[in-house]
Amino acid sequence: MSNQLLKGKKGIIFGALDESSIAWKVAETAFAEGAAITLTNAPVAMRMGKINELAKACHAEVIPADATSIDDLTNLFNKAREIHGGKIDFVLHSIGMSPNVRKKKSYTDLNYEFYLKTLDISAASFHKVCQVAYQTDAMLDYGSILALTYIAAQRTFPSYGDMADAKATLESIARGFGYHFGVKNKVRVNTISQSPTYTTAGSGVEGFDAFFNYANELSPLGNASAQDCANYCVMMFSDYARMITMQNLFHDGGFSFTGVSDKMMQRFLDHN
Ligand SMILES: NC(=O)c1ccc[n+]([C@@H]2O[C@H](COP(=O)([O-])OP(=O)(O)OC[C@H]3O[C@@H](n4cnc5c(N)ncnc54)[C@H](O)[C@@H]3O)[C@@H](O)[C@H]2O)c1
After folding, report:
1. Which domain does 27 fall in, by range?
2. In angstroms, what is the span from residue 266 Cα to ligand 1's centroid?
3. Is 45 in the pocket of ligand 1 (CB under 6 A)?
């Protein structure tokens, strides 16, 4: 079902690796809602992933960019403007990677070279995307920039490791740039805090099944799927969210504000 919510809008979507990626679903949904999109991912991911399949289905061009490289990002924004014949309406930053989490280094035994990489790829890259868009004046008035985050920025989930620090920084960048971009030309900058979702990045977290099931049992609505997340992103790109900026928006079926659920209580009652 399409309501053409993004009819006439042009966007750049980072982070579609394969069909399980949240960005993949966002690209499909934005396209179905009438947007013209440009896809991008790190050059290495291009070789491993299936982004060209998605590009074909969404009539999109793919421009490789390492989101930690200012040169790559500048080239990306310039090319996207050429392709779309003008400035951009929306950007999705859907990027996360921690070498420490990948190599199962615990939070009390971090490798600091890896730590800097985690922060660069998963958080500073968002600042770089915003800064390049800001300095090249790439965004249309009331444009919308979104990044995806996780509640480990506010509460401790031990196996999420140094990604929690990256997500806290990411959310802070949305507030910082949201101010400056709002003053410059009314561009909105927000983060969406998504439920655990089965993707390449998500499943890399140790004990992901338990994470997923715990959140699903606690949340009154259950976990939000990648498709639900894509629908929410599209709404945030649309004109219906014109005055929302600098927010961290929980998209988690109520998980963030639930203390305990009856289902969870029952487990402990059964135990005694
Ligand atoms: N899956 C979950 O449970 C979950 C929950 C909340 C938030 N998120 C967030 O959603 C976002 C998307 O992740 P996903 O779950 O769809 O997993 P994913 O693995 O499909 O996507 C992560 C993407 O980051 C890209 N990437 C890594 N390094 C990059 C670089 N240097 N430059 C450009 N791109 C780079 C990867 O190629 C990949 O496409 C991430 O920010 C993640 O933290 C995921």
Report:
1. 10-271
2. 35
3. yes
Give pairs for 116-122: CB < 8 Å, separation 24+. Answer: 118/162, 118/163, 118/165, 118/166, 119/162, 119/165, 119/166, 119/169, 120/68, 121/67, 121/68, 121/95, 121/96, 121/97, 122/95, 122/96, 122/97, 122/98, 122/163, 122/166, 122/167, 122/170
The DSSP secondary-structure symbol of 246 reads S
Question: pTM for the full model?
Answer: 0.98
Pocket test for ligand 1, best of 66, 94, 155 (most atoms within 8 A of CB): 94
**Which token pair is 51?**
């982004």
CATH number assigned to the domain comprising residue 187? 3.40.50.720
pLDDT tens by residue, 26-67: 999 999 999 999 999 999 888 877 999 999 999 999 999 999
As for how many domains the chain has, the answer is 1
